[in-house]
Amino acid sequence: MSERSARTDQLGGKDHSPLWEVFVRARRGLSHSHVGSLHAPDAELALRNARDLYTRRQEGVSIWVVPASAITASSPDEKDAFFDPAADKVYRHPTFYPVPDGVAHL
Amino acid sequence: MYGNDFAPPEDGPGGGLLGEVEAAEAALREAAARARRGGPAGDEDLEAYFAGVVDADQKIEPRDWMPEAYRKTLIRQIAQHAHSEIIGMQPEGNWISRAPSLKRKAILLAKVQDEAGHGLYLYAAAETLGVSRDELVELLLNGRQKYSSIFNYPTLTWADVGAIGWLVDGAAIVNQVPLCRCSYGPYARAMIRVCKEESFHQRQGYEILHTLAHGTPGQKAMAQDAVDRWWYPSLAMFGPPDGDSTHSAQSMAWKIKRFSNDELRQRFVDMCVQQAEILGLTLPDPDLRWNEQRQSYDYTQPDYDELLRVIKGNGPCNRQRMEHRRRAHDEGAWVREAAAAYAAKQNSRERVAA
Question: What is the pTM of this model?
Answer without folding.
Answer: 0.85
